[in-house]
Fold each of these.
Amino acid sequence: MPSPAAIKPRIKSMLKLDFYRLFHTPVLYIMLAISAIIPAMLLTMTGVETQAGPGVSTPQPATPGVEYTNTWQLIESVGGTAANPLDFGGYANINMVFIFAGLLMAIFVAHDYSSGFVKNIFTTHSIKADYVISKTAVGVFSGAGMIASYTLGAVVAGIITAKSFEVGVGGLLLCLISKILLMGVFCALFLSVAVFFRSKLWVTIVATFLVGMMLYPAASVATLNSSLATALIALLAGAIGAALLGAVSTVILNKRDLA
Amino acid sequence: MNAIETHELSKAFHGMYAVEHLNLHVPEGSIYGFIGENGSGKSTTEKLICGLLVPSAGTIRLYGQPHTNPAIRSQIGVLIENPGCFPNSTVYQNLMMQALNLDLPNPSQEVGRVLKLVSMVGAAGRKFKECSLGMKQRLGVAQSLLGRPRMLILDEPINGLDADGMRIVRETLIGLNQEQGVTILVSSHILGELAKIATHYGILRGGTLIREMPASAMVEECRSFVAVNTSDNPRAHAILATSYTQVEAKDGILRVYDETDSALVSAFLHQNGIGVTEISYQSIGLEEYYLQTMSRQTKEASHA
């Protein structure tokens, strides 16, 4: 059993490698840009504000055929009803970035295998668990960046289209924090899929979409009226989910040949 | 101490053994030339040693430690088949990523050092996908040299290199071995090039190690002979066979293995009325030795 003193530098080096790669490849920037453009498109393409008026204190769900009246409807609605499957906005709201994080991870892992770089990683001191921890961390970090980018895009578009910004600030912040915390379980799941399919990028992408859509309602737990309890639940779910699914990914990596 | 030692190492893919009961001994500080035909199990063995494949049976020890020990593995530089590089990243970025992965204290300085070693400083900003085959191969060698490893495992490192590229790699490897005592396990199909650097050899066939010896022993085994060409080789062959036990006709000439003095062979043929047109004393190289060993193995296998 390696000592914590030995584990720390290994994970640190793996993280340094992954973050260097993340910032030196265009995938992250493309994903961030898409995350910012989508809310802007949704707000600008749903027409002129017709329903917002003075005294609106809590944003209501965007429903089919009705344009957004409040910028924060893009982030989430009260009670998570923005995930109504018949509502396009429900699919294109901020929870969409969970799928984007999955795509980024699929590309990252598939390229590790297709380029052969995985040989460089595992012929040195790194062990499979280091890889899993580091890749999950990269996914959570990127996902958090995409959530921030989506929020920023929504704010800018909201200002341009003169949408309402009325919201409970505490609930909004806790909603965003909870979504970032939930990234842990999402990214760990996407990583399990990616290490299972390895260099088969398109199969990984399809599988990521499928498992992402299955887990999608979980992201709607964090709503605009989130409380500290919501954030705590998200933290526990993210951490426990990431640990369990991380163990699954490690087993997959340990059981199979790498080259 | 052996740098690499395998004991009854086996690896099967879908029930077919690629490597079987392999007992390999690579002495510390040696350049171990790993020879074998395509599919003989060289790359599989190297991947097993590097930890890229999981053995079906047997053990691998590196410097007396299990090969899975992260502390030992961090001292190994590897180039297996193709260099593991991201096509859209530059030469520098690819090296930098590996330097970070190895947790080197001054990664950019180390990347500069290995780029200089393989004469690729000028190509640092070039994307990997835009590099020539030779440049890619040299980059792979550079990657394996990051962090001044104690041991190098190189699979066909000179594939695709021109004469100058081969010289650069050869001189780099000899320098590392002689100046820093780096142990090198290297496989190559270019046996002439391997013969210039190897201090030990292992010959693999069908996943089994058929010979393992120091280069000095191989030199002794590489038989010398008197090569003779005559006006009537078939008759000369028959006459020589009456006096010598190891006579062979090959490539249009006769070889007399149990004689070192060409003048004696010439005089013997003249006495028997055969004119000698060409005679010299020769010895066989690594390539021919390897082919003969393979041929002997085939015969032995068919007899068995």
Amino acid sequence: MRGPGFLESIEAACPGAVVGSQLEALDPWIEIAPSRLADVCRWLKTAGEPRFDALECITAVDWFEPDAKKAAKVSWQPHLELVYHLWSTPARASLVLKVNLPRWSGDVAGHLPELPSVTGVWRTADWHEREVYDLSGVVFTGHPDLRRILCPEDWVGHPLRKDYEMPLEYHGIRAR
Amino acid sequence: MSNLIDDDPRIIEFDVRTDEMLVNMGPQHPSTHGVLRLVLRTDGEIVSETEPHIGYLHRCAEKIGENVTPRQWIPYTDRLDYLAAMNMNLGWALTVEKLMRHGVGEKARHLRVLIAELNRIASHLVGMGAYGLDLGTFSPFLYAFREREKILDLFEEACGARLTYSYLTVGGATADLPPGWLQKCEAFLDQFEPIIKEYHALLTTNAIFVKRTAGVGVLSREMAIDYGCSGPVLRGSGVDQDMRRDGESLYTGMYDGYTFEVAVQKDGRYPRDHTYPSVPKEAVLGDCWHRFFVRMLEVVQSMDLVRQSIDRYAACREPLGEPLKLAEKLPVGDAYLETEAPKGQMGFYIVGNGTPIPWRVRARSSSFSNLSVTHELCRGCLIADVPAIVGSLDIVMGEIDR
């Protein structure tokens, strides 16, 4: 079902949205342009065949090597990769969407990258996006209530970034 | 009809609106199953808004996973859902095996089914006993823990630990079962089987229990899917989905040759191959009672699977085989796998980059999604129903906060 025909049907419904795919991978995935993510997700949930009515997981992978020696050897450019694992209850099938984002918006350190929220498509995205924002630092535009979920409200930084450094202390508690 | 309206406390309450009050439940509230804090906006006895605050048990499990090898991360998976540590070990082990394209032998496969299903019984017993506590009855808790204790004794004999086992691991299990273990396990099952009737008498058919749970916290099928609910919460809403049957072939292959029926209400009835009490007429599909009942059915179903696996495991003559080395190099690529843990679908995601240490580790926990539906279920309910609703979701904070 995730053959080339499926890819073309997404392309027909949302032209220009698919920017890459790897159908031979362990979990075949489709890469979506960041600005079109919400459109594609809405189509996948309401009109696509099969209907992907459940969002299982959103993961942000930080592709950044803090060690300069190792960084010279890697084959990729630093970026953030968001992985969406979808599930279709009627067809009992899964689908993986990937979105590539710059690590910082406009390459200015500290400016978090932005991505359209999919809370309007699957309500479970609410908490998952809050977690990604909290731990990996991605701002989801259109999210109704984007704030930290696991870390305390006054926590600084996004711990799952590869260049994150633990603070020396937090409210008088030694942290490292 | 007028009688019905007079009897409904909610309608009377709304007639006399009082000042709104914010009530903090938790994080040290006994009926919130760990360190969960609920902020309730109340109007008299009616809850108009519920806001769960989580993160009190956050231990950076995913960050730790980026600094240790997959086998070294096994003890951390124990501490996700600590009531079903074997199932957590299994989910992570299978995910790593998927990435490494490594299969396990027949004996390890049957051992895994045996151990995972036994742990499912233990987990559901805690869920059932603690749910009784939430609703104000103490004795079912003691009856449940009496039997769970025997399962823990069996696990202790197999791996030395009573709660955080680290037993099932990448490439098989850390050790084979000791001699005589299977007989003890069978003796436990024989002794346990008639006791399930007691549980049904204590809770399932108890008039007070039915009054507190039937028709309370009704979760519709659509909402359950939309909020990513899984496990007994999803099946309690009538969605016929169980990863042991519908999941990826790598996982369903583990249950090849096993027969079991998914515990879900189909055409108004539950599978009838055992003697269960009938559904009370006050119960609505998707309410707290159904979620509880699905768990009770799964206890019987798991007992059946344990019996099947004992025979198959005993028939395997070959040795169990060694698990993978502690620091085996991971291939470049990523893998995601969902398994059916007692609380719901537990997903693990791993990204490998050619070194023994994964680049990224992710745990998608069922309780996280199951809890996120609370504010919908608690809208307009009575304060006393909040523990009943949260308890019926059977959450474990360990896997929510990770």
Amino acid sequence: MENMDVKGRIFDIQRFSVHDGPGIRTIVFLKGCVLRCKWCCNPESQEWDIQKMTMGGVTKTVGRDVTVREVFDTVRADMPYYKRSGGGVTLSGGESLCQPDFAVALLKACKEYGMDTAMESTGCADYAVISRYLPYLDHYLMDIKHMDSRKHEAFTTMPNDLILENAKRIARDAAHLIIRTPVIPTFNDTPEEIGAIAEFAASLEGVSEMHLLPYHQMGMDKYAGLGREYLLPDITPPSKEHMDMLREVVRSKGLRTQIGG
Amino acid sequence: MKTFYTADIKKSDRIPRLVENLYKKMPEIEADRAVLLTESYQQTEGEPIIMRRAKAFAHILENIPITIRDEELIVGSATQAPRGCQTFPEYSFEWLEAEFETVEKRSADPFYISEKTQETLREVHKYWKGKTTSELATSYMAPEALLAIEHNIFTPGNYFYNGVGHVTVDYPKVLRIGYSGIIEETKAALAKLRVGDADYAKRSQFLKAVLISCEAVIGYARRYAKLADMMADGCSDYTRKAELRRIAANCERVPEFGARDFWEACQSFWFIQMLLQVESSGHSISPGRFDQYMYPYFKKDLDAGTISREAAQELMDCIWVKLNDLNKCRDAASAEGFAGYSLFQNLIAGGQDKNGIDATNDLSFMCINATFHVFLPAPSFSVRVWNGSPQEFLLRAAELTRTGIGLPAYYNDEVIIPALLSRGLTMEDARDYNIIGCVEPQKAAKTDGWHDAAFFNMCRPLELVFSRGKDLGVQIGPDTGEFRSMKTFDDFYNAYKTQMNYFIELLVNADNAIDMAHMERCPLPFQSCMVEDCIGRGKSMQEGGAVYNFTGPQGFGIANMADALYAVKTLVYDQKKYTLCDFKEAMDNNYGKDMDEHYAEKVTKNAVRELMEAGKTVSREDVAAIFAAVTANPCTDAQKAKYAQLLEDIEAIPKFGNDIPEVDAFARDVAYTYTRPMETYKNPRGGSFQAGLYPVSANVPLGAQTGATPDGRLAFTPVADGVSPAAGRDMNGPTAGANSVSKLDHFIASNGTLYNMKFHPTALAGTNGLQNFVTLIRGYFDQKGAHVQFNVVSRETLRDAQAHPEKYKSLVVRVAGYSALFTTLSRSLQDDIIKRTEQGGF
């Protein structure tokens, strides 16, 4: 299969992952993103270029070029665990939509092998690109971060029009769509803002589930490691009580929900 | 679909009080058994050995002090003091006498011993000089085997110093017909003998010895019945008085006759379990499939409405407590290898029955409850898993794992059954297997498995490849030629195999010598009467009376050797970046790293010995100078830099444990260097050898006798445990580690393999966590791994426990094939446990 030789750029493969889709999964992190979210916990995922990052005094190279075959061989090694748990592969990033030839070939190989497939994505791309992925995807985990386009742009550098438009189409065409919202203090953590997203999600055809992902600071020192400034130094993770309250807001819109992926 | 009672059953208030009483004092050594044994032996000089054994056993049971502890429902104690131990001078005694002064202070498994006991034992020991199994075994061993043992290539110390144990007897038979039934069977066998038979003498003596032993056990139970009645007479508490009366009635009934209800069955079980450990000092006397043979009694009572689930659970909990009341004092070196006061009484639940149908029942769940309730290291609780195991059973077992107690261990029917078939068991017997001790599978009541027969350090033969078979200046192995002239990797690998084969044969020699010594000096009529076909054949297990006979010595250090040989192959022969001389020099200098003082002492001693072997005299000043040189780290900066570069290059090479097919295939082949030669040998009981791949906790003390290895492992540090990847080298998470380990051949290692995984508790949080955890086990087992066990504690918790042991007295960790209280382990073993890769869910 010639598609197996398609090259792509990834920065990590994480096995025995138990979030981001059902069962035990392997997550492939693709490099390069269209958005620049201020809270991003994987800042090393954003640039397409291969970078150096220094953590705890150790400098490592972030990003490597690989073929579909190489990644597929690693992913299928855990097939016994996927079979037992309904798990499989999840593409994450970065934004997988930035590398369609590579990502689609990988998803196709996994799907044809009998794996469950999922993708975490902003949905921020031309819909013609997105539609190439859908035949090989069991779960589209799509981020909706804010309903207000200006605030969306202020925190992610991009407006949300295209994203919201794509969400409707994906809901119509994808096998299974789950909406995911990072809960970021000072950005979208009020019941009104979360409620607006939930309302939109509930209006999407066939969508019944929305996950709330509480902000965390685990990626903070990566910014220093990349020689970058962390833009949200003053906010702290939302409390459990606050998250519980937001969960009830989502539920009140008729959606199933959970905190965390 | 079968349905089970899966909910927890309320713990009785009695249980925590029983546990507290058990742990009030440091365990103590008692002399009663040794004194009574010796008295009897002195009276039976010249009689057949089997008869002397039976008479001594009877004499002990007639006279040893008995006690019923506060609030007990199941009675019978081998010692006056809780968790005390008796001694067994017929096997060995010199080590104990030599350690009288230190046994209370030592780091691994200390015991209190009073002045008076010391004096009594000293007196008793005079009789035993020249009469022990260990002395006879030594005289049977080939001189080169003794030399190999002296140089720590392997150690058969377990059965050299102690009884064999390692058996699961026919509990269900005794529960059903009692010892009176066995007496009848024995009398019938005796009646069938004809005095003109060639083997009449041997057979008849054995059968008569069985009769004496069974009568002795019945008499012993009656002593308890009397004691309980006497205590009831003097008891003012109405409830306790009634309990004592019932205990008295139980002991009057069992184990003489068959048990009529669950309580009698529990009491009968306990007498068997405890008295096996009075007859001999063997450990790993394993209750086996308790949930299977106890179930009919439970079911009958439950259906009749004569017992509640709570009451049945309380009785089981009491047995769980009692299993921790038994104890054993080992020599200091063995105590490190078996650290944690463990007796490895393996009790297993779940799995298939002999017809291949899932046999999980409500008692299987109650076994899990009991471990939750009592929360102590014994029994070594295990669970059988196969494709048809009920998910709810595994989820409940996973909840227990999540507590961090290190129990249960999980075993794979899909590997173990075919492995046993390949060793000649019938399909029915193979399906009905249970686990002995740590990880050793066998068919109960038919097998003398001699599991755990020796530890073989697979790293040491590689050292000898570099020294042409010399250790400390002495030629202990074959001269496999100058390593500098090994042109290909195969030359090098073949030299390793030659060393391996040579020492494996010597291990066999040593084990068979010890086997003969047990046969001649310590046949066991009581144990034998509960193992098929001893009565039929008229001979003890030690003489080959069992249906299945094996010897199972275990190898360890596979991960180190796989990584080491792979490093040599890659860096020396494929990339030609280094020579074997570079490796040798770096290893001799411990890769330029400092030695800590403890190890420096060892190195100094070795160096001094080497000089003396070479015929030189070594003065006190010389010793000091050598020690100074060793601790000073004689390496120049240039050397240090060179070795650091080598270490870095070794580090960069792929390692076992990361799901890299080429390396894993290599490891599989390396394991064969141990497992394949082993299965070609026979033992004196008419059975064959079968390899195991597990270390108990010997990977730490035996690692401390092993120099630096080509995988970058520093001198005297622990070697890898079991079939697990070397500590800290499996970097791709638990699935990758499990995949690598499953690529070894677990079928040929039919004496058991051991895979340790360490989990952070967060990895098992919530229902999802449990499900993922069960998936991990099933996924590993789908790929034909045989065994897996888990430590679920955070590194921080363990570190804190080292700093504040008083706060963590009850912290249980999985050591190897068993769990132990973390704070009772030696510091180095604690460090090793902390170092084993901590696997988290991402």
